[in-house]
Amino acid sequence: MKIAIIFPGYGSQFVGMAKELYDESRLIQEHFEQASNCLDANFIKLCFASSDAELAKMNNAYPAAFLVSVALLKLLEQEGLKPMVFAGFNFGEWAALCSAGSFTVPDGLYLLSKFAHFYQQALIDMDIIMVQVQGVTTKQLTQVLESYPDIYLAITETESSHIVGGERKQIDQICNQLEQSGKKIKTKTVDSAIGLHSLAMQEVIDQFQMYLEKVDFRDPKIPVISSVNQKEIKTGKQVKKQVLALLQEPINWRKTMKKFKDADYIIEIGPGNYLGTLAKQQYPDKIVLSINKKTDVENIKEIFALNKQVEKEQAAKKEDMVPEDQQNIENTQSSTE
């Protein structure tokens, strides 16, 4: 059973996320206590009793979504989950790298909090907005962007859904051009907290990277696929570079998901189900699950139990098989090949 795990990024957070599981799991409660102590913040109040606007602030959303994702992953591993590969959408890649053992939960919370602070300050002086464009292919959009030097493709979600960013006036121009092209194109402004993923982040990187020196980045114990270049991140040194690459290089989630073609299950772990929806569109024949509440965990436990029973039955049949029968089957397989 090959299981691929995907972690959501900014925008997936919502008030009440993981509340049902928090109430029943001491493991998740311990993660919340640890996070509150690390950042001197009340994550119980933030995640379960704040407002959508308060939780959406990047200094709250980044660590909160990260916390929920890594806690849910640990809970599922406790129930027998054995993933073969990780990937994270946008800042969800922090949860992927942490879950793979590349850095600790406290280090992840610390770094995300520092980054959010520098990023929020930098946005004050930027006249940049982010817009989701749906209904145009990557090739078509790239061709249109050639006429707008101050606009860049930040995120490719699917072949027909993208997020672009740049100077406000040019963004308005390109949106008008696309909407008047006669095609069924939709544009929607999204929060810049999703990340600029461009060279405009250099000032933030200059301030942020010194804090990376305080963290021990280790080799991932489970493969993690970069959402930037779709290569496997293998060493602690690559992890450190990847953290910075996420900030200033475009993300291609569609290509990242292609790396999961051999997976039997694709499981989204963390708040929301947006990535699960995208995965199902790309792989309609695969089993795709999103883990948010108690019933989701119960469902996946049943799948684990069923697969274990099938494996036991197959092993038993193999043990009961006499040597002559085994040889006949192998000969048959050879002849058909």
Any descriptors?
337 residues, alpha/beta, Malonyl-Coenzyme A Acyl Carrier Protein, domain 2, Alpha-Beta Plaits, 2 domains, 4-stranded parallel β-sheet, 11 strands
Question: Can you give a write-up of this model?
Answer:
The chain is α/β, with parallel strands linked by helices. It has two domains: 3-123 and 198-304, Malonyl-Coenzyme A Acyl Carrier Protein, domain 2, CATH 3.40.366.10; 128-194, Malonyl-CoA ACP transacylase, ACP-binding (Alpha-Beta Plaits). The protein contains 15 helices and eleven strands. It has helices at residues 19-24, 26-39, 43-49, 52-56, 58-78, 92-99, 105-124, 138-145, 168-179, 202-212, 236-248, 253-258, 274-282, 294-320, 323-336; strands at 3-7, 85-88, 128-134, 151-158, 161-167, 186-190, 224-225, 232-233, 251-252, 265-269, 287-291. The strands form three sheets. A five-stranded mixed beta sheet has the order 6-3-5-4-9. A four-stranded parallel beta sheet has the order 2-1-10-11, with helices on both faces. Helix 10 packs antiparallel against helix 11 (236-248). It is globular and about 70 Å long. 39% of the residues are buried. The mean pLDDT is 91.
- CATH-level-2 architecture of the largest domain: 3-Layer(aba) Sandwich
Q: For this structure, what is the CATH homologous superfamily of the largest domain?
A: Malonyl-Coenzyme A Acyl Carrier Protein, domain 2
- Inertia-based shape: globular
What structural class results from the helix and strand content? alpha/beta
Give the count of structural domains.
2
